[in-house]
Amino acid sequence: MTHLQAGLSPETLEKARLELNENPDTLHQDIQEVRDMVITRPDIGFLRTDDAFILRFLRARKFHHFEAFRLLAQYFEYRQQNLDMFKSFKATDPGIKQALKDGFPGGLANLDHYGRKILVLFAANWDQSRYTLVDILRAILLSLEAMIEDPELQVNGFVLIIDWSNFTFKQASKLTPSMLRLAIEGLQDSFPARFGGIHFVNQPWYIHALYTVIRPFLKEKTRKRIFLHGNNLNSLHQLIHPEILPSEFGGMLPPYDMGTWARTLLDHEYDDDSEYNVDSYSMPVKEVDKELSPKSMKRSQSVVDPTVLKRMDKNEEENMQPLLSLD
């Protein structure tokens, strides 16, 4: 074991060897091979290339050198192409702070039975008058940056549960294809995290409709890890034990405290509120298309027209079959 593996338990070390092809005898060579590829992309500013940083990209791509480098390049390219998102990229930024305090994201205290961190989002908590969807994405990315410092989570990964209860049609109308693409690029294509499952619960019919729009842009591996549970919390419990879930998800623990993770990041500044005008944000969602990379994602050809959605039969939500089976 090298010093780069010092933060891993014996069980996680073995998991890294078996599942990720991590070999302590060749670890430094693996890292150097990725670092040597940096010169092939002079158009990108690689702001970090230290051993510990590159290692998280290797783990995210199971030590396939080129795939790890491509992810590393996309990580910095995404930040170059969306400069406004990362201008004030800290927990005390007013928009990020408000999103964090509303539980975007939340993190459960207990890991699941695979050692994965469980992130939770309560979609209806979004207050459109106080922060934007881009602020929520920034808060999630900032949180992942903090969490991925833990080498155990680099190996074991994350699980995400999104509760769509009381998420209104008006809120859903803000989830434009360009906004969704920005999130997919930032989370699926440009961040060194392993997501073992993304669980939708209590989703209304219009979230089903939006999912059909973004599904073509998701990798096959990602699609296989998305589970649409609807109101069937029993199917969620088959994958995540209710003993570690809060009562909102039919679990045995007390209701989730939305400020838990925000207090961890903000510490003594949690209660120090400052005014924030959402209109002052310098990257409106309607302009996101201009910032996206044509290389990493084709422009969506299908857009959900709200007037069409409104005409859909009200009973369709009840009759709609799950888009993914829960084996």
Automatic annotation (TrEMBL):
What is the protein's membrane topology class?
Peripheral membrane protein
Q: Which GO terms describe its molecular function?
A: phosphatidylinositol-3,5-bisphosphate binding
Keyword Membrane assigned to the entry: answer is: yes
UniProt-listed GO biological process terms: lysosome organization
Using the UniProt record, give the first listed, main subcellular location: cytoplasm
Q: Where in the cell is it found?
A: Cytoplasmic vesicle, Clathrin-coated vesicle; Early endosome membrane; Golgi apparatus, trans-Golgi network membrane
The segment(s) forming the CRAL-TRIO domain are 96-257
Any one GO CC term of the record: clathrin-coated vesicle
Q: Where is this region: Disordered?
A: 288-327
- SMART domains from the xrefs? CRAL_TRIO_N, SEC14
Q: Which PROSITE patterns match?
A: CRAL_TRIO
Q: Does the keyword Methyltransferase apply?
A: no
Annotated keywords: Cytoplasmic vesicle, Endosome, Golgi apparatus, Lipid-binding, Membrane
Highest taxon in the source lineage: Eukaryota
Q: How does it assemble?
A: Forms a complex with clathrin heavy chain and gamma-adaptin.
Q: What does this protein do?
A: Required for normal morphology of late endosomes and/or lysosomes in neurons. Binds phosphatidylinositol 3,5-bisphosphate (PtdIns(3,5)P2).
Protein name per its UniProtKB record:
Clavesin-2
Originating species: Saimiri boliviensis boliviensis (Bolivian squirrel monkey)
Gene name of this polypeptide: CLVS2
